[in-house]
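Hello everyone,

My group is preparing for a crystallization screen and wants a predicted model to guide construct design. The compound we'll soak is adenosine-5'-triphosphate. Before spending weeks at the bench, it would help to have a computed complex in hand. I've included the protein sequence and the ligand's SMILES below. Output in C-alpha cell form would be ideal because that's what our pipeline reads.
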Amino acid sequence: MTAHRTNKCTKCIHILLIVAITGSGTVHGIEPISAITGTAIVTGIFGASNYFYCKFAECCDERSVPGNIGKLKESLSRTLFGQHIVQQYVVSALMAHLQSTNPSRKPLVMSFHGTPGTGKSFVADQIAEALYLEGTKSKYVHKYLGRADFAHPSRLNEYKERINNEVRKSIKECPRSLFIFDEVDKMPVGVFDTLTSFIDYAANKGDADYTKAIFIFLSNTAGIEISDHLVRLMKSGKRREDTKLSDFEKMLELSAYNMEGGLKKTNMIEAHAIDHYVPFMALEKAHIVLCVEAEFERHGYRPTLKDIQQVVNEAATYDPKHSMFVTSGCKTIEKKVAVVVYDNKT
Ligand SMILES: Nc1ncnc2c1ncn2[C@@H]1O[C@H](COP(=O)(O)OP(=O)(O)OP(=O)(O)O)[C@@H](O)[C@H]1O
Ligand SMILES: [Mg+2]
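Reply:
Good plan to model first. Here are the C-alpha cells for the complex, ready for your pipeline.
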C-alpha cells in the first residue's frame, strides 16, 4: 500500500526546498543538470522525511492501517456474547475483503440489524480498533450518527451532498477508509441515494479507488422481526446457536427496504450493493449475566452472587411478546455495575 499523506506543511517545505535548491533560475539562468540534481535531492529528502513522518504519525499505510483481523477475532470471541452469527460471519467477510491475493472489485458493505444493546456499535468499534492503529480515533474512520448528524428530513439534499463530498474526499486521502453510519433508522429516506455509485461495482473508476473501503450501516430496523423469526426457528427445533446468516438475510433485506429510515426504498438495496445483512439477536438472561460479570471484571471487582443478581434484576426487563429477550440487552449494565462497585467502595 502506498503512503498517502496530506500534511500541508510538509508539502510546503517540499516546494520551498525545490525553489531554494533550483534557485532563482529565471534570473541567473540555472543549468538544467543542476536543476535535475537539485530536484532529485529534494525528492530524496522528501521521501525520507515522509518515511520518518509515517513512522510516528498516522499515514494511510500498513503501519497505521494494519487490518489486524486476528486481533478482531480474538477480541470478539472474548467480549461478545450471544452473537454466534456475527462472530463467524463478520470476521470472514472482513478477511475476504482485505486479502490482497483476491483484489476486491467493490467496497465491503455490511448492514447490522438488531434491537438496542445487542452489540452493533460495540462490534463496529472493535472493527475500527483492529483495522486501524488509532482505532476509532483514526482520521480514516468516519462515524455518523443518525440523530445528531442527519435528523431533519427537510435537509435531505444537504445531507446527501455532505455524504457524497465527505466519502469522496476521505477515500481520495485513504482508500482503506471505514465509514460507520449509526442509527440509520433515524435518518431520512433517500439519504444514501448518492452513495450507491461509490459502493456498487465499477467503484474503482473515476477519481479514486473506492474498492478498498468498508461501509457499515447500523440500525434497529427489523430488530423485533429478528426475535420473532428466531423464536419461530427455535419452535421448529433449531437451537439458537445453530441458526445461520442465511436464515435471516432475505428477511432483513426485505425489512430494511420496506421499513421507515435511511434504508427505505434505497437504490443501494435495489442495486444489491449491500453485501451482508447481519442479524444481532436479542439477548437472553444468560447473556446478560455474562455482560454483568465482564463489566465487574473491567472494574477489577470480584462480585458476589448477590451483586450479580442485583444488577441483572435491575437491568433486565423482558419483551412482552416472547418473555425471553431482555429489551435493552446489555446496554444499561455498565452504569448499574458502576453503582454497585461505588457502593461497596464507600
Ligand atoms: N452481545 C454483547 N456482548 C457483550 N457485550 C455487549 C453485547 N451487546 C452489548 N454489549 C455491551 O453493551 C454496550 C452497549 O451496546 P451497543 O452500544 O453495542 O448496543 P447497540 O446494539 O449498538 O444498541 P443501539 O441499537 O441502541 O445503538 C456495549 O458497549 C457493550 O459493553
Ligand atoms: Mg448503537
